Description:
Blueprint: E1 7-10, E2 13-14, E3 21-22, E4 36-40, E5 49-54, E6 59-65, E7 68-73, E8 78-83, E9 88-92, E10 97-101, E11 108-113, E12 122-123, H1 126-135
Antiparallel strand pairs: 1-9, 2-3, 4-11, 5-10, 5-12, 6-9, 6-11, 7-8, 7-10
Bound molecules: thymidine-5'-diphosphate.
Thymidine-5'-diphosphate (TYD) binds near residues 38 and 40.
Amino acid sequence: MPFEDCRILRFPRVEDRRGNLSFIEANRHVPFDIERVYYLYDVPGGAARGGHAHKQLWQVLVAISGSFDVILDDGEARQRFSLNRSYNGLLVGPMMWRELDNFSSGSVCLVLASRPYEEEDYYRDYDHYRDNLRNSGSPPDFSQIKRHPENLE
Ligand code: TYD
């Protein structure tokens, strides 16, 4: 839930005159099994995405092309992350409210997710999310998440 579970990851880069290559392995470069991949593209100028939190889902967001910002909110503090490198990803844990904005023209946001799509995993109302933060006696169980911090920035 808190900000210490969210951080910028750096993926391997194979530099080559013919073009650079990065790769991401589950449970090595991201600390979970990748159950789903989705991507945002054709985002019109000025649009914002997100506006929700997840109960259990872990995600890594990557600016595969172009750039965008992710605003994370743990119910008390907000932090803005600018993603603009194909070899970086933002790890976002459960119970973090997130918004995405400032998409550059032609940008693509790739998301690696620890679970399949489950609408019941979402908090889509900020006040409801805040109430559940206050009411949850114990924080979410992170013990399922395998951590491989060697690639963390
Ligand atoms: P949503 O997660 O709200 O988008 P964003 O966070 O990027 O603003 O999803 C938008 C719609 O797409 C919603 O109706 C559910 C659907 N959707 C799926 O069916 N599967 C998925 O894996 C995702 C991420 C969304």
